Amino acid sequence: MLANVHKALDNFNQETLEMCGKEAEFKAILFSLCYFHAVVAERRKFGPQGWNRSYPFNVGDLTISVYVLYNYLEANNRVPWEDLRYLFGEIMYGGHITDDWDRRLCRTYLEEFMQPELVDGDLNFATGFPAPPNLDYVGYHNYIDDNLPSESPHLYGLHPNAEIGFLTTLSEQAFKTIFELQPRDSGAASSSSISREDVVKNIIDDFLDKLPEEFNMVELMARVEDRTPFIIVAFQECERMNILVRELKRSLRELLLGLKGELTITTDMETLEGSLFFDQVPDNWTKRAYPSMYGLQSWFADLLIRIKELEAWSNDFNLPSSVWLAGFFNPQSFLTAIMQQTARKNEWPLDKMCLSCDVTKKWKEDFSAPPREGAYVNGLFMEGARWDVNVGSIANSLMKELFPQMPVIYIKAITQDKQETKNIYECPVYKTRTRGPTFVWTFNLKTKEKSAKWTLGGVCLLLQV
After folding, report:
1. What is the pTM of this model?
2. Which ranges in the chain are annotated with CATH 1.10.8.720?
3. At what angle do helices 331-346 and 229-259 cross, to 10 degrees?
4. Are 424 and 453 in contact (CB under 8 A)?
5. What count of Cα atoms within 13 Å lies in the side-chain half-sphere of residue 266?
6. Less packed terminus of the chain by CB within 10 Å, N or C?
7. 194-318: which CATH topology?
8. Which fold has domain 323-464?
9. CB-CB contact of 250 with 282 (8 Å)
10. Does domain 1-164 have CATH number 3.30.200.20?
11. What is the pLDDT of residues 65-117, one digit of tens each?
C-alpha cells in the first residue's frame, strides 16, 4: 500500500496542487483520490473477497478524475460532494465495474473517503491513518512515510483473516503450478505396486457401487395431486439429479469397458481417466452439476449427501424441518417458491414481495418440524465476519476462523413495505468462495454497526466452503 499511495501521488506535482482557486479543498480531495486509487487497485490481491471480478483500474482513471475535480470546484461555489462521488464511482472508476456488488463496494469507499470532514482533517482513511493537514507536495509524501500504518488488511477495510485467505490462495496456486509441471503419466503409481489403471478401476467400481438408481419421475408425479411451488422445485431437482447421475454412470461404464479392452479408448475417456486419477471433477460432470470447489472424492461424497436429502424429501413431499440450502442445483428456485407459496395463500402480487431473514439461535438438530409459513434453512457459512448468537447481529471475525457456520435461518415471504431497512446489512449469498457468477440471493442481516463496515470487509454468506 505504501508504494501504491506514493505512486499515485507521483502522477502530480506542486503545480497541480496550486492550480485550483479552492486550494485547501482541492488538495484534500486529490489526496483522498490517491488513497482511494491505491486501495481499489491493491484490493485485487485478496481475490473474490476483494473484488468479485478483476478490473483494469489504471493511472488514467486517477488523472482524469483529478481534472474533473478541478473543473467542478472551479465551476461551483461549494464542493459538490454528491456529484463528485457519482462521477468518480459510477463513471470514471465505475465504468470498469460490471458486478453490482463491486459497484456498491466502490460507492461505499467514496462515501467513506469523500465527506466534508475530509477538508478539516477530521476523517480517517483507515485505523491509525487520518486525513493529512494542508501540506505541500513533498509534505504529502513525507506524511505518507511517517503516518501510514504497516501493510495490513485493515488499510482496505478488511479483517486480518483476509490475509490468511490471500496467502492460502497463493500457496494453492504454487502447488497447482508445480503439479501441472509433473509428467501426466507419473504419480503415486510409479512408486507403488498398484498401476494407474488399477487405481482408476478401483475408483470406478467404488463410484458405481455407491450411485443409487435414478428417481422414478413418473411414479413420483403420480403420487402428488396438488402441485405446490415446493413440490415443483422437488421435481425439478430430482430431474436434474437424474441427468447428472445418468452421465456419471454412462461415462464410468464406458471407461471401464475401454480399460478392459472391450471398447476403443477415446479422447474423452482418456480425459476422464486422468481426472479420476488426479482427484479432479471431470468437465462433462461439472457441466451437468453445480458450482463446487471440491476435489473429486469430496465432490462425490457431497453428491451422495445431496441425493439422500432429495430421497428423504421426495419420499412424502413434506418440507423438511430444516432445509439444506446448499443441496439444491438451483437454490434460487426454492427461495422463490417460498414467496410463491405465500403469494398464492394470501393472494398477494409476487412482484410486491420479498424475503425476510431471521437468524435463529438454534441449529439443525433443534428442529423437528417446518414452520407454518416459509422455511428453516441451514448449512450457510459467513466470510469476512461472524454471527454473534448472543447479540443477534453481525460481529467481527475471530482470528483464524475464516468461515464460521451460521445458525438456522428462518426465511419467510413478506410484502416489500414491511421490510426492515434500519440497522440492516444487505448480505449477498453465493454458492462458493469464487463469488461472482455464483450469486444466489440477498439476505438482510441485523447489524449494530454501520453497514459500510461489512461492505468494505467483503462480508457474505456462502453455501459451500
Report:
1. 0.93
2. 1-164
3. 160
4. no
5. 7
6. C
7. Substrate Binding Domain Of Dnak; Chain:A; Domain 2 (1.20.1270)
8. Hypothetical upf0131 protein ytfp (3.10.490)
9. no
10. no
11. 999 999 999 999 999 999 999 999 999 999 999 999 999 999 999 999 999 99
